[in-house]
Amino acid sequence: xxxxxxxxGRGGRRGVQSAVPAGLPHPSQRFRRRSWLAxxxxxxxxxxxxxxxxxxxxxxxxPPRAGG
Length: 68
Fold this sequence. Notes:
single chain; 68 residues; mainly alpha; 1 helix; 22% helix; elongated
């Protein structure tokens, strides 16, 4: 049976493109908040929504990629 997942140690990351394409804008705070509330409602519609995680408040800056 062939596996669809990249195998570590066998060059499994070669040819895989970045999940964040260049030129796309970052999501706004309004979008982050509304999507978080929708996600919380989907998990448990009757529970009060939890606070937005601190890491989602500001966009994370990615370090420059090594090797271009």
